[in-house]
Amino acid sequence: MNASPSQPHPAEWTETQGLLPSVERDLPAGRHQFHKEQMMAQIHEDLRAAAPAVTPQRRNPFLRRAILLPAGAFALAGAVVAGVALSGGNGDGGTADLATGPALTTRIGAADPKGAPQLLDRISLAAADTSGPTVHDGQFIYIASKVASTYPKTVDDKTTIVSQELHDRRVWLSPDGKNGWLIEAGETSDKGMTLSSDTPIDSAYNALVKLPTDPAQLLQRIYRDSDAVRDHEVPRDQAAFVAIGDLLTESYPPADLTAALYKAAAKIPGVVAVDDAVDAVGRHGVAIARQNDDAGERTEWIFDKKTLQFLGERNVVVKKVADSPFKVGTVTFTSAITQRAIVDASKQVPGQVG
Description:
By secondary structure, this protein is of the alpha+beta class. The chain contains 7 helices and 13 strands.
């Protein structure tokens, strides 16, 4: 799990070239399950005080995800989001508005409901054969990714659909979920910001190793814990699917748990296989996805077609919704995991000594 996937040559980007110059993810409906919404919104507004106002319904999910992901959509019993605190790095503490272009768009892959169980079974087998190092106390889980989004932005009472440039996101998470560090353009200073909590976060690594690996029991746990925090407007099955997806991106579940998560996902109604999807850096793959009809968006987990390694995820508008500003084919969020490793200190990068 600590290998760094190679990025394709720009010639391979073709139809997804439009993904590369953008993005700040609008929060899809599935992400609204995080509780303490007002607290997170206020933190975001404080950090972005110098930037033009963004439509309140479309708050930046990256910051919230960084803070809450260890608890996140998969908030296990006892997680206390209100206990999470932020503090800026030693830089100027400022953030920048990364909006640079029009909405991101893509070709929508064909969905196959009958193909999902077989594909997930293959992905589960591949995950079970890929083991990573055990995380010890004092170490940190390092995850580097490329992220991008499209969102409504309001300036002087005029709202337009904009996107950010594709940018780096790097996060360090302690095994107990109490400490972490985030560096992300547009959200933190160049040196980053502290993520900390006085309360152990139950979906951090130390808690994940204790979860059941029986798919049926695991799915029951996922439903129970996502029910406790999901927004009432988010369908129950969609919330569970998103919860699993969050663990696949910025978390470090053991190989046996990862395999069980895929088998659990196969039991969620509405899950489909997608013949082609593209991550944030242009890598084509197959996808496991689920559509939220209320939001008109499909959440896609993208995998390498040959190795079935998890590459990233994206949210694509597949159905026009009356109150939505997005057109069909809009990519509201795209990501690509570029490195996942265990390091000996916060802010240390793989291969660095000390």
